[in-house]
């Protein structure tokens, strides 16, 4: 009986503290209004920031990746490794988070309050999910490396727009993503955009590779897009259904643990294929010099991590499909940059494919605006 009374007393104290917190909340709300319009404006500011990370990171990483192969790079496994191996630059975040948690715990002890413990998912389940996501990421990076090696960067980027259609398809089953006329219009336009590149008569000549290698690059890029669409849908399902958290810490955890698994897989492939033996020779023969070789690979790794943070941030704020739409917009920017940096030709069919890709992006972005308008006017 004494234990029961003690438990009831603790519950009543917590209820009183909660009521006091609510009253303080209303008082603060009068001083610092938090209207629905203000919250939506904050949402769109975050979306804009994460979109900038996606666009800048993806554009820079893709162009640098093509520069690596253009100036003498030959290793597909090294091209895969730099897409994943930059995750250690995110590790200092855990030190900062640990210091922050220590300060917060000291504050809770001083105020005699204990944080409520939420039920955490099984460690085995979480580890299994990271293992699956890491294996898929390793496959995606290898397929993308092959595609970037054999295709012009403009053709490669526009083909990647098909990943949005695959993402929407998988999200329909995994995340109950709804299809509206604007979304269907977006997917159709992006699909047609990719098909046009198959029919482009001068694509194989401009790629400076044989027909067989061009076909391999095209198939690998489309396959990588399909796997990427599946990966994004699985990530959103994992964060919403398993972790059940929406925070920046979740973003860092997913990037780091998935990249760790994928990096190990890629390193095994690098040594098993014996490509590592030719890396020293490759660096010595790099047209821009040894320092540029190292700097190019380093910046590829860094910019892909910038892209990953933005992508997962958009996934948490909106959805995996919307994050992919912003990624597709970046793919439309890359061909324009390729004309200036690599002097690639922008013929009629390629230009039409790019316009359709941008149109598809605008169609989906407008649907998202209808779902989450800043104001209710």
From TrEMBL:
Record-level Gene Ontology MF annotations: purine nucleobase transmembrane transporter activity; purine nucleoside transmembrane transporter activity
Membrane-protein topology: Multi-pass membrane protein
Keywords annotated in UniProt: Membrane, Transmembrane, Transmembrane helix, Transport
GO cellular component: membrane
Protein's UniProt keywords contain Transmembrane helix: yes
Entry annotated with the keyword Transmembrane helix: yes
Subcellular location per the Swiss-Prot or TrEMBL entry: Membrane
Spans through the membrane: 43-65, 77-96, 123-144, 156-176, 182-202, 214-238, 250-272, 293-315, 321-342, 349-367
UniProt family annotation: Belongs to the purine permeases (TC 2.A.7.14) family.
Protein's recorded name: Probable purine permease
Species annotation: Cannabis sativa (Hemp)
């Amino acid at each position: 009986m004494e234990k029961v009374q003690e438990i009831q007393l603790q519950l009543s104290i917590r209820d009183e503290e909660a009521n006091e917190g609510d009253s303080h909340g209303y008082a603060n709300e009068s001083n610092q209004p938090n209207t629905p319009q203000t919250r939506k404006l904050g949402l769109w500011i975050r979306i804009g920031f994460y979109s900038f990370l996606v666009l800048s990171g993806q554009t820079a990483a893709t162009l640098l990746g093509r520069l690596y192969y253009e100036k003498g790079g030959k290793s597909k496994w090294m091209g895969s490794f730099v897409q994943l191996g930059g995750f250690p630059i995110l590790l200092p975040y855990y030190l900062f988070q640990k210091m922050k948690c220590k300060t917060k715990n000291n504050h809770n002890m001083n105020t005699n309050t204990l944080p409520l413990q939420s039920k955490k998912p099984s460690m085995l389940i979480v580890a299994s999910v990271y293992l699956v996501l890491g294996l898929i990421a390793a496959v995606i990076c290898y397929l993308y490396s092959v595609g970037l090696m054999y295709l012009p960067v403009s053709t490669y980027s526009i083909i990647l727009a098909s990943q949005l259609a695959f993402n929407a398809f998988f999200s329909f089953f995994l995340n109950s993503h709804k299809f509206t006329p604007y979304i269907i219009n977006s997917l159709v336009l992006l699909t047609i955009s990719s098909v046009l590149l198959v029919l482009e008569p001068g694509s194989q000549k401009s790629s400076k590779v044989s027909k067989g290698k061009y076909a391999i690059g095209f198939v690998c890029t489309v396959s990588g897009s399909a796997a990427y669409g599946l990966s994004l849908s699985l990530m959103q399902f994992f964060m919403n259904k398993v972790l059940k958290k929406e925070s920046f810490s979740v973003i860092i955890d997913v990037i780091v643990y998935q990249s760790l698994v994928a990096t190990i897989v890629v390193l095994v492939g690098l040594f098993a294929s014996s490509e590592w033996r030719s890396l020293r020779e490759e660096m010595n023969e790099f047209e821009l010099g040894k320092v540029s070789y190292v700097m190019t690979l380093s910046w590829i790794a860094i910019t892909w991590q910038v892209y990953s943070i933005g992508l997962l941030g958009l996934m948490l704020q909106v959805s995996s499909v919307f994050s992919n739409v912003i990624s597709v917009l970046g793919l439309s920017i890359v061909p324009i940059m390729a004309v200036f940096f690599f002097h690639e030709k922008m013929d009629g069919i390629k230009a039409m494919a790019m316009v359709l890709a941008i149109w598809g992006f605008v169609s989906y972005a407008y649907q998202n605006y209808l779902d989450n308008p800043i104001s209710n006017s």
